[in-house]
Amino acid sequence: MPNAHAITPIDLCRLVGTxxxxxxxxVTSDEDFALDPHLIPGATRMAHTGVAQMLKAPVKNPLIFxxxxxxxxxxxxxxxxxxxxxxARYLEGGNEAWRNTxxxxxxx
Length: 108
Hints:
Layout: E1 6-7, H1 9-15, E2 23-26, H2 30-35, E3 44-45, H3 51-54, E4 63-66, H4 72-83, E5 88-91, H5 94-99
Parallel strand pairs: 1-5, 2-3, 2-4, 4-5
């Protein structure tokens, strides 16, 4: 059964570059990013520890969190947003799944 808090790479790929695109926050660790220094177009890099500070400002779009594998960092950020009363999702499989999705754009 799919996780209600996840978005697949295919579904996110359909949204990137459109007015309906969510705000994409890449919380990949510095170590993992150094090994694969690419971003999903429109994504903003942020330390996962910065999520609380980010929520102090109004959020305009839905939030999608991304990390290397779509596990602890992005899911932790989503859990934090939900505990603060917000809504967010994470990219299923993270940057690794995005990299392996045909047609998914990446920024160098």
